[in-house]
């Protein structure tokens, strides 16, 4: 039976800031993404199709820090990153520094499917998008009033680490009926980041990893720590070489290794047996899944 999980970011989400209306909006967005991926899985589609479809839904939802609604760099520009990995044959595609591509995850798939490369960056990635028929959008397409306000606060002595700001980065992992795994991640990065900064989301092995012999992982959190710990691949290695199940492996890396380093965030992961893990070491993580029994759940704070 297939399984799918999604995340919409992790961080400090004080219960007082999580109004019933906002809670419902987040959960509805997560469910829309899950259903979009599930439609592919239920009709025999690939795990790659499922995770791309799920992430595209989240990229188009301005509540999340990816695509429209992405956070803004210190220079006032949105710079977007994404990556995708197919666990069947370890193919991967990644893009970084995008300014005019509406769906970064769609471009990451084109890099995987239509080029001999794994990662394309900046103007080269955008030229590749044009060559493959993706219509450009103005950078202001991604900007929302909420994100502009967060940037202004961060640049004028305030803190970018507000309840809304911490919630960011989206991702999906899936197991299809053929036993293939896939993972996808997309992000706008960090509010007021230095332009040109690259986090873990587009880096295979750090923010995204999938291999049929172990698991699929998508990460969210303070990217610099996830890069240094090679989080997604570290989880896969514990499954592959130490014989841990996906839940134990993800818990070890997120709640022990990252904590010792001072890194904050979480992951979603699915094993080759369909077991789903969604650990985090922050106060909350936007997350949801449809398990192998068809049960749908969404959550934000600790349960």
Quick summary:
By secondary structure, the chain is of the alpha+beta class. Helix content is 35%, strand content 24%.
Strand order of the largest sheet: 4-3-2-6-5-1-11-12
Q: Based on CA inertia axes, which overall geometry fits?
A: globular
Give the domain tally. Answer: 1
Radius of gyration: 17 Å
Instruction: Write the CATH homologous superfamily.
Output: (Glycosyl)asparaginase
| Alpha-beta content class | alpha+beta
Average pLDDT, rounded to a whole number, is 94
Which percent bin holds the helix content? 25-40%
Between the first and last Cα atoms, what is the distance in angstroms? 26 Å
Poorly predicted spans: 160-165
Task: Indicate the proportion of strand residues.
Answer: 15-25%
CATH architecture: 4-Layer Sandwich
How is the CATH topology named? Answer: Glutamine Phosphoribosylpyrophosphate, subunit 1, domain 1
Largest sheet: 8 strands, mixed
Give the C-level CATH assignment: Alpha Beta
The number of distinct β-strands equals 12
Order of helices and strands: EHHEEHEHHHEEEEHHHEEEE
Tally of individual helices:
9
Question: What do these coordinates show?
Answer:
The structure is a single chain. This protein has helices at 20-42, 47-59, 104-114, 122-131, 145-155, 163-166, 223-229, 231-242, 246-261; strands at residues 3-11, 80-86, 91-98, 119-121, 170-175, 181-187, 208-211, 215-221, 265-271, 276-277, 284-290, 296-301. The strands form two sheets. It has an eight-stranded mixed β-sheet. The longest helix is centred in the first third of the chain and has 23 residues, at 20-42. A hairpin with a 4-residue loop joins β2 (80-86) and β3. It is an alpha+beta fold and 303 residues long. α1 (20-42) runs antiparallel to α2 (47-59), α2 runs antiparallel to α3 and α8 crosses α9 (246-261). It has one domain (3-301): 4-Layer Sandwich (Glutamine Phosphoribosylpyrophosphate, subunit 1, domain 1), CATH 3.60.20.30. Helices cover 35% and strands 24% of the residues. The chain contains nine helices and twelve strands.
């Amino acid at each position: 039976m297939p399984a799918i999980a999604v995340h919409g970011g992790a961080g400090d989400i004080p219960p007082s800031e999580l109004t019933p209306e906002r809670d419902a909006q987040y959960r509805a967005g997560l469910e829309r993404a899950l259903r979009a991926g599930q439609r592919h899985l239920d009709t025999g589609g690939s795990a790659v199709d499922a995770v791309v479809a799920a992430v595209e839904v989240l990229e188009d939802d301005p509540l999340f820090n990816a695509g429209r609604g992405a956070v803004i760099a210190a220079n006032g520009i949105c710079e977007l990153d994404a990556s995708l990995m197919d666990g069947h044959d370890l193919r991967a595609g990644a893009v970084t520094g995008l300014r005019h591509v509406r769906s970064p995850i769609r471009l990451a798939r084109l890099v995987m499917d239509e080029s001999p490369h794994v990662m394309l960056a900046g103007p080269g990635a955008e030229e590749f998008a044009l060559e493959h028929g993706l219509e450009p959008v103005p950078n202001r397409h991604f900007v929302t009033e909420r994100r502009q306000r967060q940037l202004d606060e961060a640049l004028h002595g305030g803190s970018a680490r507000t309840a809304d700001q911490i919630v960011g980065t989206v991702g999906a992992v899936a197991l299809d009926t053929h036993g293939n795994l896939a993972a996808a991640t997309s992000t706008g990065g960090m509010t007021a980041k230095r332009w040109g900064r690259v986090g873990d989301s587009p880096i295979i092995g750090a923010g995204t990893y999938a291999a049929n012999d172990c698991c699929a992982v998508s990460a969210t959190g303070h990217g610099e720590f996830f890069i240094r710990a090679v989080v997604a691949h570290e989880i896969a290695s514990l499954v592959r070489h130490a014989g841990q199940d996906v839940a134990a492996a993800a818990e070890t890396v997120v709640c022990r290794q990252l904590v010792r380093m001072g890194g904050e965030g979480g992951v979603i992961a699915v094993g080759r047996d369909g077991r789903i893990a969604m650990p985090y070491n922050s106060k909350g993580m936007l997350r949801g899944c449809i398990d192998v029994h068809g049960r749908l759940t969404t959550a934000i704070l600790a349960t």
